[in-house]
Design a protein that fits this description.
Elements: H1 2-25, H2 43-47, E1 76-86, H3 91-94, E2 105-111, E3 115-135, E4 138-160, E5 165-186, E6 189-190, E7 194-214, E8 217-224, E9 228-232, E10 238-239, E11 242-253, E12 256-266, E13 273-284, E14 288-296, E15 305-315, E16 318-328, E17 336-347
Length: 348
């Protein structure tokens, strides 16, 4: 009996060690640090500089704070079109560091005051890499192309715990595919091309809360990807960036609202990004809304600031929002980019 137990124990240890060797033998996935960021959703929150965690009262609420779904008056379908970039730069330069590489249509939301179902693309890009080095007098050249596509399917629910506290949660399934193609050349001799396609599945949770401090003053907080993981077939498991966003919204008058957010994006592959958001919304005739805002890691440095503006039209539960973002390509560049977006929300 003891001999049988010892044999089984040794077999279990051997299998565990074998599995661990396979897991640790996998490489890290060659995704960019921003592969799970997607793009900001909704022309209204974008026009407010992204200061929306405590406002969050549109069908796009799941992406900013799912607790805000409780503020909807009816069922709503929402989507956004990223329809224009204006810059003297080439198109490839403008979209080079965006996870969607300039895609026009990125999400779709079916929302109600009790919850929502939504889809959005997080990444859809291809990288072209070239490396060259000399080893023992031989010139080694490598061409490596990486294509990444990741989509997110989200189910959201919200609940009012009291007259002043509302909570919400997003449960997301991620589906991804990564294709890697590599060609090598030594002097003038080509090696055999290598290709690999890896599928990935992920799971993440977001937690959001809105606290009504006063009728004219709301606070909000959201924890995104807490936790969140992506499991690739041929690569190591990847932890999604933890995002913490907190802020407040204050009605300065019945027609004027000021909002402020602080955002901390914690990445595994690069340093954290701390972003400040400020927004202002003025209501005109109950059907027209004027908006402005800005955001950036340092609001004292003009080239690190994204300026935003927009206008909204509302008739019953039909809403059309337009937004513009104006920013520098980088902190060292004089080139300015103007990005125009449009969101539509219709009842159903």
């Amino acid at each position: 009996m003891r001999k049988k137990i010892l044999i089984n124990f040794c077999l279990l240890v051997f299998l565990s060690q074998s599995y661990s060797m396979v897991v640790f033998a996998k490489e890290k996935p060659p995704t960019q640090y921003y592969a799970y960021d997607g793009m900001d959703i909704g022309a209204r929150p974008i026009a407010l500089g992204g200061a929306f965690v405590a406002v969050s009262d549109t069908a796009d609420a799941p992406f900013w704070n799912p607790a805000g779904l409780y503020n909807l008056k009816s069922n709503s379908l929402s989507f956004m079109l990223n329809f224009s970039y204006q810059s003297s730069l080439l198109w490839e330069e403008v979209i080079a560091n965006e996870p969607l590489r300039g895609k026009r249509f990125s999400h779709l939301v079916f929302a109600s005051p009790q919850g929502a179902i939504s889809w959005r693309e997080l990444s859809n890009y291809t990288e072209y890499n070239y490396f060259q080095e000399v080893i023992d007098g031989d010139r080694h050249e490598t061409w490596k192309d990486i294509e990444v596509k990741i989509s997110q399917y989200m189910f959201s629910v919200c609940k009012s715990y009291s007259a002043s506290l509302i909570g919400g949660i997003n449960m997301s399934y991620l589906s991804g595919r990564m294709a890697v193609s590599e060609k090598n050349k030594v002097n003038d001799l080509w090696g055999e091309a290598e290709q690999n396609i890896s599928d990935g599945s992920g799971l993440s949770f977001d937690w959001g809360f809105i606290y009504v401090i006063r009728k004219f003053f709301h606070g909000g907080i959201m924890f995104q990807n807490f936790p969140g993981y992506m499991f690739w077939d041929d690569y190591k498991t990847e932890q999604l960036p933890l995002v913490v966003r907190m802020g407040f919204a204050m009605k300065m008058t019945d027609l004027l609202t000021f909002s402020w957010d602080y955002e901390d994006r914690m990445y595994e592959k690069t340093s954290d990004k701390k972003i400040y958001h400020v927004g202002l919304e003025q209501i005109i005739m109950d059907t027209v809304f004027l908006r402005g805002g800005m955001n950036g890691e340092n609001l004292n440095q003009a080239r690190q600031i994204t300026y935003t503006a927009g206008i909204g039209f509302k008739k019953e539960e039909y809403v059309v929002d337009l937004a513009m973002k104006r920013y520098h390509l980088s902190v060292t560049s004089d080139e300015v980019i103007n990005n125009f977006l449009c969101s539509l929300s219709v009842p159903f």
